[in-house]
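Case study 2.
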Amino acid sequence: MRDNIKGKALTETTFYVLLSVFTPRHGYAMMQFIEQETAGRLSLGAGTLYGAINALLKKGWMEPYGAEDGRKKEYVITEAGRKAAEGERERLKRLLCTADTIIGGVEHE
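Prediction:
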């Protein structure tokens, strides 16, 4: 996962994985969520997803959720993960504002 730490830009995969765990989900449900929310444009393989999960666990941006009683392991976003997702949302809003101003002639406040 190549998130830009200096610029605080997240990869699209990282951002969608974080969005997917605002509600507790297991890996396959995350894959389904991401594919649905991107209308099939982004479809993660198991290796990519579990690599992202492991990286986000190490960063403290998500954590296991519930008891491991033989069911699929679920994950949920942490407060630090929420802050990272909110920061990315703000970064993308600024990017879109700049693009609208230059390309579309739209002015934002």
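The two ends are 33 Å apart (CA to CA).
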